Amino acid sequence: MPNKIDISVIVPLFNEEESIRELAQWIKKVMDAHNFTYEVIFVDDGSNDSSWEKISEINSQNSNCKGIKFNRNYGKSAALHTGFQQTNGEVVVTMDADLQDSPDEIPALYKMIKEEGYELVSGWKKKRHDPITKTIPSKFFNGVTRIISGIKLHDFNCGLKAYDQRVVKNIRVYGEMHRYIPVIANWNGFSKIGEKVVEHRERKYGTTKFGIERFVNGFLDLLSITFVSKFKKQPMHFFGMWGTISFLFGFVFTLKVIWDKLSAIYIYKTPVVREITDQPLFFLALVALVVGVQLFLAGFLAEMLTMNFSSRSEYIVSERIGVDK
Q: What percent of the chain has pLDDT over 90?
């Protein structure tokens, strides 16, 4: 097993050929100045420029800089997750490759993890060099995420973050969930989450690879991760609850329709009685009953899938006494 080192830096990138060499030199300068043992893992997310050739050249000159290349563009979450699995550092730092994140922040982030006891520290770009079309939606997005998650961070989507190694080895980042790594970590029991104001630099090369659609996708991902995190172990708690409510409403409406029919005939002796199937309430009751049964079935099926695919690796063990790993 590789020896532990002080810091692993993960840099996911897509078509950033202009900035990679400068970033690698900057990181090396910071690490050497503070006598850190380190590694830099560049994860090329299917670039179609010369990014991979630049990474190869950097590695030939500095063996601390390593590279992973995807055969196509899988997204930032896949790049981070793959990088997490390859790290050997006691502290793991993630940063973007566009030089908008400053490597000069790394020593302070390292100190917050190792000396102040944080398990995750998220950067906060308090002063941003972005157009208003990005800053306003970002503030709204972060505000909603704070309310739903209960985590008091100002900038969930900041690429500059630091982690205790236990965090990155015990969480799974998929889809577009990289925006919610603090949320994922918190729901996995890593609740010592801090924040640090970091410098946000103007983009020096190229253009942003993300459009306005990331905010729409972000809210959909937030709903998804909120549901999955709360109910992935007991899906019947969600489906069963709403199935019961729907079924009870349908059952009560059905009884009311039947009662109205019988009371009109036998109690009030109404000469002309409206047919049950002519009443809108009958169809509402029918829909509610069917939906209730379907939700129950969905809950049972989800429970069966959960039991079949449960794995011990999903449970995080913080300490061991007298047992092997």
A: 50
- Residue boundaries of the structural domains of the chain: 5-231, 235-314
Query: Quick one: angle between helices 20-33 and 51-61, nearest 10?
Result: 30
CATH number of 5-231: 3.90.550.10
pLDDT tens-digit map of 56-73: 999 999 999 999 999 889
Adjacent-strand bridge partners of 65: 40
How many Cα atoms within 13 Å fall on the side-chain side of residue 181? 33
C-alpha distances (whole Å) from 114 to each of 90, 163, 179, 184, 249 are: 9, 10, 24, 21, 55
Q: How far apart are the first and last CA of the chain?
A: 14
Taking the whole predicted model, whether its pTM rises above 0.85 is answered as no
- CA 164, CA 66: separation in Å to the nearest integer? 20
How many other β-carbons are positioned within 10 Å of the β-carbon of residue 121? 28
Query: pLDDT tens digits for 228-259?
Result: 767 777 788 888 889 999 999 999 999 998 89
